[in-house]
Every structure is written in structure tokens, then in C-alpha cells.
Specification:
The protein folds into two domains: 100 residues, Alpha-Beta Complex (Aspartate Aminotransferase, domain 1), CATH 3.90.1150; 229 residues, Aspartate Aminotransferase, domain 2 (3-Layer(aba) Sandwich), CATH 3.40.640.10. Helices cover 38% and strands 15% of the residues. The strands form three sheets. Strands 2-8-7-6-5-3-4 form a seven-stranded mixed beta sheet, sandwiched between helices. Strands 9-10-13-12 form a four-stranded antiparallel beta sheet, with helices on one face. The protein has a two-stranded parallel sheet with strand order 1-11. A hairpin with a 6-residue loop joins β12 and β13. The protein is globular, with a radius of gyration of 21 Å. The relative contact order is 0.17. The structure holds pyridoxal-5'-phosphate. The site of pyridoxal-5'-phosphate has 14 residues, from α3.
Amino acid sequence: MTATGLPLRPELAGAVPYGAPQLDVAVRLDTNENPYPPPPCVIDDMTAAVAASAATLNRYPDREATALRGDLAAYLGHGLEVTQVWAANGSNEVMVQLMQAFGGPGRTAAWFAPTYSMYPQFARSTATRWVSGDRDADFGIDVDTALALLDAERPDVVLLTSPNNPTGTALPLSTVEAVARHTDGIVVVDEAYAEFRRPGVPSALELLPRYPRLVVTRTMSKAFALAGARLGYLAAEADVVAALRLVRLPYHLSSLTQAVARVALSHSAALLGQLDTLRDERDSLVAALRASGFAVADSDANFVMFGRFPDASAVWQGLLDRGVLVRETELPGWLRVTIGTPQQMVIFRDALQEVVAR
Ligand SMILES: *Cc1c(COP(=O)(O)O)cnc(C)c1O
């Protein structure tokens, strides 16, 4: 029983809803969004597609989102077929569906911290037991540590995040393969930031033909500048997709979402057009912060984790006082900043210098 007498599940007692503060601040660099809104030509096509879709809103959407999944398969390439691609409301929902299908009571999920802070909530919501291994000093995953955890815990689902949030660290494919070879469980590589990786850093998509229990999740929230539309997806063996169809809610993906995401994919060159700018900004931020004496984790994502501060909360507040919102991390002494426009990054750097000078 809660204080109000509600018969809440005991594991939810005292829990707080997930989410960084959504503050109305001039420079918002806290949730890894793309700072560039969709260009006008894309907005026009989205508006037309929404109007067309509105004309049939009395009908349920395509339950299988077949056309959209075909477009996603074409975008990913690697010879993927529509039957190997699945989509839902953000990769968060994809992840919950994976836990519903392959986790659940009596089962275990494993990941390596520090990592995406939503994973414990996905596990809790699906009554999946979870264990967290430690990343190494450079925020990578040591293979021996990982295999020892697999031996000790025999997880049914392993989540590998690459590039990782909040650290920005990408995993070598050899690490993914070592884990995939060592478990009978489902191995999920969360590639929410894949499009931002540096040249030569591979995607786990190329491993899919060789590992039938490997899953690669992606999202349109970050590189595609479509966070508001809520569209996440995965690529895997067709059997994995078939399993997810058992747990998804009927008509989970609205016609409007499907229509807008398809327009976005048809304009992928325009929507991804700022990737080079964002990557250049990231690389120069990493270099500048290091030159100023900060510790900075290598990043293959659209954010940078930097520190180390005796009191990271005070620095966070100091930046906020100057109109710049960044993110506190679970790692004491470190903050995470999303790459914004060049102008926003100048404001961020100036504000940071002021805060640390005091
Ligand atoms: C942002 C993020 C996601 C994406 O979430 P959506 O539900 O697709 O918006 C997934 N995984 C990680 C690690 C992320 O940082």
C-alpha cells in the first residue's frame, strides 16, 4: 500500500518518473536532440501526408506498418527484408517489447554501466530481473568482465549500447561477437546514435547474418531530427520480429506516425544533411575541452561527456543560470552536453569558462 492507500506494485513504491527537467531555457543541450528542425520542403510534404492520412482516421492504421518497415529496411541496407525490420513508438517501446517477449518473470537482463538510465525501468515494468556489469576506465566493455557476467548470471537478454549514452563510447564488433558467441540469450545492440559515429567505426548490422539472436535497435529521434514523432525500429532475424508481434498492442503505431516517418525517410538526405556539421562541432568541442584541461570521453555520438568536477551539480546550475541546460549523469563528477548549432556551442563554451573561473 502507498501512503494514499493505492495497491501499487511494491517495486514502484517510492519510484519517481523518468526524465530530465523540461525547462524553458535559451540553449537546451540536455536530451541529445538534433538542433536543426526539419527543412521547409520536408514540412510541406509531412503536412500533405498528414492531411491525406487524416481523411481515413476513422480506420485503424496498418497494424503491421508494412510500407514503413519496407522503407526502413531500404534505409538500413545490408540486404535486410521487410520481415526483418520492426517499428514502434520510439526505440524505447521497441526495447520494452523485446523485454516482454524475451524477458519477464523468472528471466534476467544484463547491461554494462554507466549506460542508458531507462534500462532499469524497462526491466522493472516487465518484471524482468536485471544485473549491471561495470564498464572499464575508458567506458568500453572488457570482454573478460562481460563473459564472466554471462557465466555468473546467464542473462536472457543482454543490452550493449554502442555508441553508449552517456559516455559516447562505441564498441568494437569483436566485443559484440564475443558476447553473442557466449550466450543463448538475445543480444541487443542499441545503436540510437549510429549515424553520428566517426569514419571507420562499424555498425553491428553487418553481424546480423551470422548471429540469429542478435538485434540492432535504431531510432529516428536523434540523427533524423524526429524526436517529436516517436519512431524507433530494429533489425533482426524474421523470427525475432514474429515474436514481437505476439506482445505488441494492436495498432500500436498510429497512421499519422507512419505517414510522417515515411516522408522523413523519403527525405533522408535533407534530414541527415547536418550530420557533418554536428560531427565537426563534436570533434572540435572534444579537442577544445581537452585543451582547457577537462577530462573528456571519446565520443561517436551527438554529445560529449566531460568532467571531472568536485561538484558537477554546481557546474550544472551555473550553466543553467547562464541560460544553458546540460545533463547531469549518474557518474559523479561528469556532465553530458548535446551538440547544438555552432552558435549554441559558442554560448556553451563561454558559459562553461565563466562557471569554472568562479
Ligand atoms: C535517446 C536514446 C534512445 C531513443 O529513444 P526513442 O524512444 O527512440 O526516442 C534509445 N537508446 C538510447 C541509449 C538513447 O540515448
